[in-house]
Amino acid sequence: MTPIQFKVENYLANSFIIVEGKKNANNFYIIRSGKVRVMKENPVAGEDPFTIFGPGDFFGVVSCMSGHARIETAIALENVSLISVDREMFGVLIQKNPAVAMKIIRFFSRKLREFDQAITHLTFKNRVEEDPSHLFNIGEYYMKKRVFNYAVYAFQKFLKHCPKNENTDTAIQRLKTLKAPLSVPEPQSTGNMNRAYRDNTMIFCEFEPGNELFIIQSGKVKITKIVNEEVLLAVLKQGDIFGEMALLDNKPRSASAITFGDVEVLAINKSNFENMVQAQPQLATRLIQILSERIWIAYRQLENLMIRDHIGRIYDTLLIQIEKQKIKMAPKTTHKFDIGTKELINMVGLPPEKGDIMMVQLLEDKNIRLDEGKLFCSDIEELEKSALFFRKKSAMERKREINKNKNI
Ligand code: CMP
Fold it and tell me: How far is the CA of 8 from the centre of ligand 1 (A)?
């Protein structure tokens, strides 16, 4: 077998290696020698705005594996030598070096948690808790909503993980009222690592410690989170993977997983996981693709939240819908959205009165109109320009303010 050669690229100090916003990114880089500065136009709160990477580190993976535009700019700080990995070569790389896959998966999982926390903070001004004692609050939430099977699950898990807590007696009381056992029945096993769940069942609950990830074999799974109210984060289907974050970060579950119809999953624990990454590179590739897509969406959401003008956020929200579907930007390309003005106002999170005024303003744009109640754009490239204008404007305003504060 001939050894696979990866491309080596050398860059002089101060040269740009990748540029944020550039489309059709089909490769990523692993640093062989030298230092690279990686930055974003809209640094995420809590993230180091000028991360410096060195030998063994990687960058450009999210855009390469998700097929979206670059979300970061990388500049050589000194003369650097890089390994360039094309998307199609990823499986080969993992087979040769499974440790790289594990490093990327761990790093991405951490990033995703950081981004999720920043989104929750910016959207709901809530602090993100990471303590199993909050299982009690989830139980109380579902109790109030009269979704008793979820409440039972949350209280049972609360008692398991917090047997001596100020709310323990209340949780026991609630379970007795609901005529439910105090402990959780073990999941039904259908063989090796296969599990079957009936419709409308909690596979796991937000805040629960977890040491397994799941691959959906059949059926659908909802990922939800309580942020004041229950928020639906995603509906996952056959082949999708979930539950990797708690497994990799040793932190409680960041969201709940609930079946939508009968579901079969493959449950993989930590030691099986590392073996599987080695034995089945396609699993690691799929997981990195999924994480890349989620990180891309989370970053775009954050970028959107940082736009100060409401109309700018509206344009950018429409652009995100187009980008998610990976529609190619070309002049005079039309697009019919599957949402109307109400859904758009909701997505942007504007109160209805404010939203109505903004919709009047949006529809004054000759490029946007309503077609049978759905929004219609007659030139998506023009829409992209409008969104970019507002993104840049907000970034400039923020920079100006930072500089002003520095000078005070
Ligand atoms: P974990 O934190 O272990 O448990 C909840 C899981 O939901 C999490 O791992 C991810 O697999 C998944 N998850 C979290 N946030 C999202 C999201 N925004 N979109 C899709 N899946 C998510």
Answer: 35
